[in-house]
């Protein structure tokens, strides 16, 4: 019997998030350019006689237990495979970077490998709109309610600082506070970007439509973006998802690391990480323990 698998669950970052409509059933329609970070959680799966979930790591305290946890709900889609799951939580919970969805997608990738089946994500949409894009962990354009995922190849990587001011925000409350829900999408065909500066210039003309209502509900988000933008060398600062995590883009990994170190000193109570954004499909592939 195999010892088990280790699966990295990279953070999901919305470089753009355009809210383009709302369906009759209440679901919002989105158009979002999504990338992944080399910062994330780790899931370990070990074959066992029954399902169990142990959560550890610096962000373990806020993780929902039992079947409230998306990772365990995904695991139960495999009734013939039982495993002891260990989730090492590095990402803040409910913070706009897809932590729960990334964890669920990591469990799915691991169990699909154990079961010898293709990691098709269509079955996961009803558990969470962000899970399908997190399964391959590739740079992608996400449309509809999350079911339309188109890989975007050739994006330059971005060196970033991720910062969360430790404020909880309610995603439904933020969507409810949107004054316009029929905003313009991104262009039908995305341009080619030859470097990070060109990508940032284009991103500056795009939006996260949830940022203004999120900042109205939690002014700390505006402070976080302003603080990132004021750091030396920051090319662009924006909120990811529905917040409260924000990202600042820098020209080099060294600049991002230095900026993160400075920010962590000035804001010791914030969650702050330096990282790289792009496609993380290789590091997200299950590895034998």
From TrEMBL:
Family of this protein: Belongs to the GHMP kinase family. IspE subfamily.
Protein name per Swiss-Prot or TrEMBL: 4-diphosphocytidyl-2-C-methyl-D-erythritol kinase
Lineage: Bacteria, Pseudomonadati, Pseudomonadota, Alphaproteobacteria, Rhodobacterales
Pathway(s) it belongs to: Isoprenoid biosynthesis; isopentenyl diphosphate biosynthesis via DXP pathway; isopentenyl diphosphate from 1-deoxy-D-xylulose 5-phosphate: step 3/6
Metal-binding recorded as keyword: no
EC number: 2.7.1.148
The organism of origin for this protein: Pseudosulfitobacter pseudonitzschiae
Catalytic activity: 4-CDP-2-C-methyl-D-erythritol + ATP = 4-CDP-2-C-methyl-D-erythritol 2-phosphate + ADP + H(+)
The organism's place on the tree of life at top rank: Bacteria
Domain GHMP kinase N-terminal residue range list: 69-132
Catalytic-site annotation from UniProt: 12, 130
